[in-house]
UniProtKB/TrEMBL annotation:
Transmembrane segments: none annotated. This is Pantothenate synthetase. It catalyses: (R)-pantoate + beta-alanine + ATP = (R)-pantothenate + AMP + diphosphate + H(+). The active site is at 41 (proton donor). Its main location: cytoplasm. The keyword Cytoplasm applies. Beta-alanine binds at residue 65. It comes from the Bacteria. (R)-pantoate binds at residues 65, 158.
Length: 283
């Protein structure tokens, strides 16, 4: 029987627990999550285990990255199932703070990221988002003081933002991206997939399929604007409300016109019914 990981809910308790994990100079990996864990999260934990002797998973639904119109109150919360999954992976510690532990009365300092956070992708539709992400991740890094931190590539712009922040602020954390885990039909795993109605779930893999087809056309030499426009039209015709389908430089997220300008990343965001899906692939 797997043993349940230790759970801490206050910063002083976290510091004591981390100090205990550091005994004999053990390395620590942090996997930040908002809970509602699925196989994609499990893959992050397994990658963390390959990079460090001890693994800490944070579970915190961060209110500062949700706009008032978004799903903070209804975001899936599956605590017992999450603990069972983490126990099966032999996680050492779960950091599960209350909102007031992260943002106590009088909290007045926030991180305002630029660079990849202002690339005109997610930030164009969720201008509040990366400030909230950077602030909470900055706190997690200083609280846990990990050697490495693992983030999924599905949230590719977020991965670039966090990597830039860790480097710019000399936080001493190596940020590692983990490949996107997909369902058998290609849909990127996400906690929000539970919101999809059955007919929407059947249509959802269209995003990945169209991206793969568009990438193949680009690699075959088709003009970028033409290939992307055709892909966008197909996504819209399939019933999605498209926010963006764009090809960007994989490192900087700057606009890019051809493979000659550097490695490409194709990124998409679209609504299907009330559920907003994001995905990306290398080109």
């Amino acid at each position: 029987m797997p043993r349940n990981p230790a759970v801490v809910r206050t910063v002083p308790a976290l510091r004591r627990a981390v100090n205990d994990l550091r005994a004999r100079k053990a390395t620590i990996a942090l996997v930040p999550t908002m809970g509602a864990l699925h196989d994609g999260h499990v893959s992050l934990v397994r990658l963390a285990r390959r990079h460090a002797r001890r693994v800490v998973v944070s579970i915190f639904v961060n209110p500062t990255q949700f706009a008032p119109t978004e799903d903070f109150g209804s975001y899936p919360r599956t605590w017992k199932a999450d603990v069972a999954k983490l126990a099966a992976e032999d996680v050492d510690l779960i950091w599960h703070p209350e909102v007031k532990a992260m943002y106590p009365d009088g909290f007045a300092t926030r991180i305002v990221p630029e660079g990849p956070a202002t690339a005109g992708l997610e930030d164009r539709f969720r201008p509040h988002f990366f400030g909230g992400v950077a602030t909470v991740v900055g706190k997690l890094f200083t609280q846990v003081r990990p050697d490495v931190a693992i983030f999924g590539e599905k949230d590719f712009q977020q991965l670039r933002v966090v990597s830039q922040m860790a480097a710019d602020l000399d936080l001493g954390v190596k940020v590692i991206g983990s490949r996107t885990v997909r369902e058998r039909d290609g849909l990127a795993m996400s906690s929000r997939n539970v919101y999809l109605a059955p007919d929407e779930r059947r249509a959802a893999p269209t995003l990945h399929r169209v991206m793969k087809e568009t990438a193949a056309r680009l690699r075959a030499g088709e003009d970028t604007a033409t290939a992307v426009a055709a892909g966008a039209a197909e996504i819209t015709e399939a019933g999605f409300k498209l926010d963006y389908l764009e090809v960007r430089h994989a490192a900087t997220l700057a606009p890019i016109a051809s493979l000659k300008e550097g490695p490409m990343r194709m990124l998409v965001a679209a609504k299907l019914g009330s559920t907003r899906l994001i995905d990306n692939i290398a080109v």
